[in-house]
């Protein structure tokens, strides 16, 4: 007999890139998410926060799929099965527009191109499957790594936004699907 969590995960599309599986959330992902949320690494996403608030954030991400029909995927490294972070199309209440967001939970995953690989697949999914014409990515002011990733993806600065909880952010506009042609879209299965 499958659990409700297993049935839920099975409803989330599964994307694959060369090195990653983008999949639905599993209950055992929470410990990784909570560890990230409690660390200084979470400053770019509103942290650090305690386990109680991490649980709320974790449930927010799974609930986003229920209420919007899309959301963050968990990034799983194919070679090891390790959960590395999240990435995906995102549009919670209070956001100015639909976003492609990313977070790496583990410091040892940085600098290897995982976020870039996942974000290209997520953007391809948003454009090709969800039918989005454009998307933004928001970075908290001072989050240099995410700013560089947005630029690498071809995004351009498109103003700012002050989020009630997270504070000042920069809006990065992704190239429109029509402007990408066949290039710039990561293959996914």
Write up this protein.
This protein has helices at 4-11, 29-38, 51-68, 114-128, 144-152, 177-180; strands at residues 15-16, 20-23, 73-77, 83-90, 99-104, 136-140, 156-163, 167-173. Helix 2 (29-38) crosses helix 3. It has a five-stranded antiparallel beta sheet with strand order 1-2-3-4-5, with helices on both faces. A three-stranded antiparallel beta sheet has the order 6-8-7, with helices on one face. It has a domain at 4-132: Gcn5-related N-acetyltransferase (GNAT) (Aminopeptidase, 3-Layer(aba) Sandwich). Strand 3 (73-77) and strand 4 form a beta hairpin. It is α+β, with helices and mostly antiparallel strands and 189 residues long. 33% of the residues are buried.
N-to-C order of helices and strands? HEEHHEEEHEHEEH
Helix content: 25-40%
Number of strands: 8
Q: What is the CATH superfamily classification of the domain at 4-132?
A: Gcn5-related N-acetyltransferase (GNAT)
Number of DSSP helical runs = 6
Q: In the CATH hierarchy, what is the architecture of the domain at 4-132 at level 2?
A: 3-Layer(aba) Sandwich
Radius of gyration: 16 Å
What coarse outline follows from CA principal-axis ratios?
globular
> How much is the average pLDDT?
92
The assembly state of the depicted protein chains is single chain
Low-confidence stretches: 183-189
* Strand order in the sheet with the most strands: 1-2-3-4-5
Strand content: 15-25%
Most strands sheet: 5 strands, antiparallel
User: What would the CATH topology of the domain at 4-132 be?
Assistant: Aminopeptidase
What distance separates the N and C termini?
A: 28 Å
Reading off the top of the CATH hierarchy, the class of the domain at 4-132 is best stated as Alpha Beta
Q: Structural class per helix/strand content?
A: alpha+beta
